Amino acid sequence: MTDIEPDDTVDARGAACPGPLMDLIGTIRSAESGDVIRLLSDNDQSLTDVPEWVEEAGNELLTVEERDDHNAFYVEKA
Amino acid sequence: MTEHVVIVGGGTGGTVLANDLADRLDSELDAGDVRVTLVNDDPDHVYKPVWLYVPFDKREPTDGRRRLGELVDDAVDLRIDRVTDIDTDGQRLRFRGATSPIEYDYLVLATGSTLEPDQIPGLAEGGHNYYSESGATDLREELLEFTEGELVLSVIGTPHMCPAAPLEFVFMADDWFRKRGLREDVDITYTYPIQRVHGNPHIAEWAQPIMEERDIQVETFFNAESVDPEAETITSMEGTELDYDLLVTIPPHGGVDLIEEAGLGDDGWVDVDKHTLEAEAAENVYALGDTADTGVPNAGSVAHYQAGVVGQRLASEIRGLPATATYDGKTLCFIETGMDAASFVEFDYETPPSPAPPSEKLHWSKLAYNESYWLTARGLL
Asked: How many CB pairs under 8 A join A and B?
């Protein structure tokens, strides 16, 4: 378990692709530079969608936590 | 005791449901055992797909408007008013035009999508759209005079109404300019927020090669951050800047604040069981169409099929029978691929879409459906 304290959490569990990524983008859009957003997603596609977008947008994927039935992505806004 | 069903929203979902219930509960309505009220804040029903054709001067916005009173069965109480508060514990609604609240036994929310261009600085001033009547007519003025330069179509955020419409617009624009001998003077660029050209991977896989063949430039992972109307540029969160001479956008969408205020879901979308369409946070509340957060496209066909399911479930509940009807994600959609060709897709939660080869026959089928839509609204088709 990470000890990173997120500034905001987006719970996109149950959402179909590209819902989780779009929810993350929407929250990052209104976040401050340096904020950490935690995205919870149980969609496997997020494992590729999220890192690809985070890199494209110049943000940083701090870690991905594998939990029992979903993943938690910690993204820091550049 | 009279059971009162209140439907909020007179778009496709709400209107089809009202007429469905009038038919299904005919004898109960006659006997006064049931009352159905349809509330809408506009006396007109609007068929939004007409707007796609307005910028190309093929249709008029008035082609997509009819009086709700002419479409809805006389057995339904039609109320032109705006709901200002939903109290799901007390099963009461407040209206702008009334001092006392109205009680319901069953509530159906079909409040649809609204455009939120102000989320993006400069968008309202610099961008055009065909997702509103005024937007479509303003864009028509620009498009008819546009003979050369950079045309950018930018999809800003999802979900938005009719996920096929951005593809349709660029396919139609490409063909329209070709037929007028102007295509070599017009560059068309299509932007999309994720790493492919459409949210549904099967439709993206089908559309991308058509875009390549027709020289439609694509910018993926493009989430608009701001528009500079003076410099005529649009900039993305990912750091890409595009010049435009004519900017057409699909503005960010949201639901109505009322829903979030009632604790039924975020951003104006109601959290529902995607099969029963029952709200997760309240008893005796359903949502359908764009309002229901099911993950299926915000499309009229979805609202149409969901209305049938909600109608059947409500009738069962009112008659004291188990409600067994469920929604399977069925979506049906024509996709224009030019000014005289279209494709067609049909899919559900389990079956992915497989777009049909574009043909003139499918184009005319789409236009024929647009004409017969009024039978859908009346609950006849």
From this structure: 42
List active site positions of A: 17
- Say how many Å lie between the first and final Cα of chain A, rounded: 24
Residue listed under structure tokens 């960010």? B252
Mind telling me how many Å the CA of B76 is from chain A's nearest CA?
Answer: 35
The CA-atom distances, in angstroms, between B76 and each of A77, B16, B92, B274, B350 are: 52, 12, 19, 27, 35
Q: Is the pTM of this model over 0.80?
A: yes
Radius of gyration of chain B (CA): 21
Q: How buried is residue B185: exposed, middle or buried, by Cβ count under 10 Å (0-12/13-18/19+)? A: exposed
Interface pTM (ipTM) of the complex?
A: 0.93
Distance between CA atoms of residues B283 and B341, nearest Å? 46
What is the band of B40 on the pLDDT scale with cuts at 50, 70, 90? Answer: very high
Structure tokens belonging to residue B80: 């032109």
Please list, in sequence order, all residues whose beta carbon lies within 8 angstroms of the beta carbon of residue A71, skipping any fewer than 6 positions away: A40, A41, A42, A46, A47, A64, A65
CB proximity list for B212: less than 8 A, separation 6 or greater? none
A39 CA: distance to closest CA in chain B (Å): 16
Walk along chain A (78 residues) in steps of 10 and give the mean pLDDT of each run.
Answer: 90 88 92 96 93 96 94 96
